[in-house]
Write a structure and sequence with these properties.
This protein is mainly alpha-helical and about 260 residues long. The chain is built from 10 helices and 3 strands. The chain folds into 2 domains: about 110 residues, no CATH class; about 140 residues, no CATH class. InterPro entries: ThrE-like_N, ThrE_Dicarb/AminoAcid_Exp.
């Protein structure tokens, strides 16, 4: 038996690692495998892990000690692939050379303190993505410029809703309303002629592509509950975007009689 940690400390650290992986957008199989490998490397005779997008349940047994089980509830999820890579690296490191409970906590704090992209960079990146896809779909330069402005302000809106802990459905609903309304107003004042191209390009930053991809990967890996859950979440987000974008278009049709 490895004595770097007690059984309770080991299970707590492993669940912390798994929870942060899941919160940063890691796949279910990666979360379960990381927790299991870490527990086995510290001397656990067995480690059973069950993870879904909203919770992790882990059970370990070390030598003749009684079986321990802990549950971790996942309330916030996002995408931070840099932290996913760092957490993977930490898992590999402690599996190769086990560390104490205190050292593990320090390593986790260092990962949490890693610098992230500033808000300004995120604003310009969202605007750039919107402009790129607008041009890709055949939009003119002025329409691309309009999409950039819409995307820039869209990210500000999304950042504000995140601070309010608003559900993703309502965030994307508001985002869809803003994109469609701003595109119609922009075209009306002379920023091109095709509002549909601007709307499609500006919506792309909201599309849950990674979530959809991970859901399919989970189902291929045999994690059907997690895969179906994530797939349903992606469909719900897409429905919110579509419903939001349809509201200004519907009002335009009712008021002006044109689509």
């Amino acid at each position: 038996m490895i004595t770097c940690m007690t059984s309770a400390e080991l299970l707590s650290c492993a669940l912390l690692l798994g929870r942060r992986l899941l919160e940063c957008g890691a796949e279910i199989y990666r979360v379960e495998e990381s927790i299991e490998r870490m527990c086995l490397s510290y001397g656990a005779q067995s480690a059973d892990v069950y993870a879904v997008p909203t919770a992790i349940i882990a059970t370990i047994r070390i030598d003749e000690e009684e079986i321990l089980t802990q549950t971790s509830r996942i309330k916030q999820r996002g995408t931070d692939l840099d932290k996913v890579a760092a957490l993977n690296g930490l898992c590999r490191a402690v599996c190769t050379c086990p560390v104490s409970y205190g050292q593990f906590q320090k390593d986790m704090q260092q990962i949490e303190a890693r610098p992230q992209y500033s808000k300004q960079v995120q604003y310009f990146a969202c605007g750039g993505v919107a402009a790129f896809f607008t041009l890709l779909f055949g939009g003119s330069f002025t329409e691309g410029l309009l999409a950039f402005i819409i995307g820039f302000l869209l990210q500000i809106l999304v950042s504000y809703t995140e601070r309010l802990y608003m559900h993703a459905l309502f965030t994307n609903l508001l985002g869809g309303v803003w994109i469609s309304l701003a595109a119609l107003l922009g075209i009306a004042v002379g920023f091109g002629h095709n509002y549909d191209v601007v709307i499609i390009g500006s919506i792309m930053p909201l599309v849950p592509g990674l979530l959809m991809t991970n859901s399919i990967r989970d189902m291929i890996a045999g994690d059907f509950m997690a895969g179906i859950s994530r797939f349903s979440e992606a469909l719900l987000i897409a429905a919110g975007i579509a419903a939001g974008a349809a509201i200004p278009l519907g009002m335009r049709t009712l008021l002006l009689g044109v689509f």
